[in-house]
């Protein structure tokens, strides 16, 4: 992870994992709180609030949400652009393999 780089988080709207939702985040850093004493905690801010208000670390508003992830949570959760491309290709391949041509198909 690199501070100030953009990472992507992929979640799914459906249990069959056919409808991915991609959200972009800026990496703010690691272990930014005095409470981060057990392992590394990584901090991310969504790109929308980052664009509107700047970094949550220096913003004047106190209610800018951040996502905090442990090293274990981070492994499959925040993807760089290359890994995002791979995941999207895996989704495309899976849908093709299952012969799903419509999102309403079972």
UniProtKB/TrEMBL annotation:
Name of the protein in question: Uncharacterized protein
